[in-house]
Design goal:
CATH architecture: 2-Layer Sandwich
CATH topology: Beta-Lactamase
Number of strands: 6
Low-confidence stretches: 1-8
Largest sheet: 6 strands, antiparallel
CATH superfamily: GAF domain
Strand order of the largest sheet: 3-2-1-6-5-4
Shape: globular
Number of helices: 4
Length: 168
Amino acid sequence: MSHGETFSVVKGRIPCAEEKRDLYRNAIDALTAMLSGETDATLIMSSVVAVLHQTMPHYFWTGFYRVCDDELRVGPYQGTPACLRIGHGKGVCGTSWAENRTIVVADVHAFPGHIACDARSASEIVIPWHDCRGVVVAVLDVDSTKAAAFDECDRTMLEDMARQFAIG
């Protein structure tokens, strides 16, 4: 399948690596067109969340937690109601922020200190989002109702997006 072709995907189903790559490329193309020259952090985060949440069938909850003082605060996001605030180093999101690294969790119930905002979440990926100086200003949090929904393809493509759509 060539870039630009679409797969028929069913919401909730975990796509294969080839499908994921094509879906992420389509999302990046859409975001590139939408965000050309954009610098407003809220507009960037809202657009990234909306495009990813609507594009990726294995996403259940998609959102940013923004660094505000000594905690993460939710928003923008799409999905069920979320935890509003997360402490530095707490849960998957706070750990990703504290350690400035992507974390892929195949089974959230096995992650020490996992914060369960919605009991239906089974797996998760969290990516630090930087500003143009390299400072973590938010984390992108994506949950799935399927165990082990995220892999190296998700990690690579989302980290590429984080570099391409850095905030500020």
